[in-house]
Amino acid sequence: MSNTVILRVAVAIILLTHSVFAMFNNGINDFGNFYLNQIGFAPLGVPLAWAIKLSHVVCAVLLLLNKFVKPASVVTILILLMGIVLVHFKEGWFVVGGGRNGMEYNFLLICVLFVLYHSYLIVESS
């Protein structure tokens, strides 16, 4: 669906850069060890953190290929919602400026993924 190409590429870039950077700066292991394990996911914190980031990479690739956009969007929306619930909600709305580490970034990604998901529903029902 060509009218979604800009949104698909933009979300793919965001998911890839956020994930790949964390793979090389030990961010994934730190998130698993120092956050997920501490809030009750031990001993699965590190594998869960890797599963989350790898799912973002898979989603990004699928968005770029314009394949399986609906399931990729659903999985990623669920992960982003859990990120809001577990991490970002208590920090407030703003990522920067009026606060730090808030939920506005996840909210926008969820909205864009919802639009992508919905655009494929419209095509299938036509």
From TrEMBL:
<protein>
    <submittedName>
        <fullName>DoxX family protein</fullName>
    </submittedName>
</protein>
<keyword id="KW-0812">Transmembrane</keyword>
<dbReference type="Pfam" id="PF07681">
    <property type="entry name" value="DoxX"/>
</dbReference>
<keyword id="KW-1133">Transmembrane helix</keyword>
<keyword id="KW-1003">Cell membrane</keyword>
<feature type="transmembrane region" description="Helical">
    <location>
        <begin position="105"/>
        <end position="123"/>
    </location>
</feature>
<keyword id="KW-0472">Membrane</keyword>
<feature type="transmembrane region" description="Helical">
    <location>
        <begin position="72"/>
        <end position="89"/>
    </location>
</feature>
<feature type="transmembrane region" description="Helical">
    <location>
        <begin position="5"/>
        <end position="24"/>
    </location>
</feature>
<dbReference type="InterPro" id="IPR032808">
    <property type="entry name" value="DoxX"/>
</dbReference>
<dbReference type="GO" id="GO:0005886">
    <property type="term" value="C:plasma membrane"/>
</dbReference>
<comment type="similarity">
    <text>Belongs to the DoxX family.</text>
</comment>
<feature type="transmembrane region" description="Helical">
    <location>
        <begin position="44"/>
        <end position="65"/>
    </location>
</feature>
<dbReference type="InterPro" id="IPR051907">
    <property type="entry name" value="DoxX-like_oxidoreductase"/>
</dbReference>
